[in-house]
Amino acid sequence: MKIKVLSLNIEHGGVLMDALVPFLQSVDADILLLQEIRSGKRHLPPTSRTLQYFSTLFDYPFVDFMPQYRDFDETDDGSSYNGIAVLSRFPILSARHNYFDYPYTEDYRDSFEQAQYHPAALQVVELNIGGDTVWAANVHGPWHLIGEAYTERRERMVQAIVAETAGKEKVIVAGDTNAKPHNPVFAELNHLNSVFGDSLRTTFNMQRKTLAGYAEAAVDIMWVSPAVKVLAKDCPQVAVSDHLPLWAELEV
């Protein structure tokens, strides 16, 4: 069975919403793996309740949201939660939320100065796709300004991915790892195949980044198990976030 999967860090709930929504509609992916998505109460603006807003626009009947921290940046009452989410047209049979690094918190305040304390997360959902079980893992890795550097936090990220995916036949892993693809920690993912390999120079939209180093940082990554065949792939150069999206057509 052929499916299309898209992964994207949408930037603070979707700050470029007017461009983001038509782009997602045009790609028409079967599964969305999103980072920096927000879940909030109905009185909030769309960027503070992205999950609820998308439910009015897109046909994804199966959704799982994993909060990373309570967001006080957009509202004074803290009625929004920032995290990662899987939106799927296929049934989600189960979900696991792995806080392999810092746990969920209501104390973190999002800023460049505090980015090193940003909680990381790995969300794993079990999908029923045409009667087969497919595992989709959505990762938002620990922040570090040097993409090549080995850190214990990155090691914990990879160990969590291995623990959640090793031994499973059909696996898709994608997300914003905050690490470059040749970082030494990724050598441990030898049971998975990289969809994009070293083909990407960067996965950042440089129209929204000021530090030159981001132009050489392909931190958004997608892997699949050998039983999943890659039919097509792309990293569209579109200004829908501070990151660039990754999508792949897969045969599962």
Note the main attributes of this structure.
globular, 252 residues, mainly beta, 12 strands
Task: Explain this structure.
This protein has 252 residues and is mostly beta strands. It has one domain: 4-Layer Sandwich (Deoxyribonuclease I, Chain A). The chain has a six-stranded mixed sheet with strand order 3-4-2-1-12-11. A six-stranded mixed sheet has the order 5-6-7-8-10-9, with helices on one face. It is globular, with a radius of gyration of 17 Å. The chain starts with a strand and ends with a strand. The relative contact order is 0.18.
What share of residues is helical? 10-25%
Q: What would CATH call the homologous superfamily?
A: Endonuclease/exonuclease/phosphatase
Largest pleated sheet: 6 strands, mixed
At the fold tier of CATH, the topology name is: Deoxyribonuclease I, Chain A
Q: Order of strands in the sheet with the most strands? A: 3-4-2-1-12-11
CATH hierarchy class name: Alpha Beta
**Low-pLDDT windows of residues:** none
The chain-level structural class is: mainly beta
Shape summary: globular
From the coordinates shown, what is the CATH architecture? 4-Layer Sandwich
Domains (count): 1
Structural Rg? 17 Å
Strand content: 25-35%
Topology, number of strands: 12
Terminal residue distance: 5 Å
Instruction: Give helix and strand order, one letter per element, not per position.
Output: EHEHEEEEEHEEEEE
Helices, by number, come to: 3
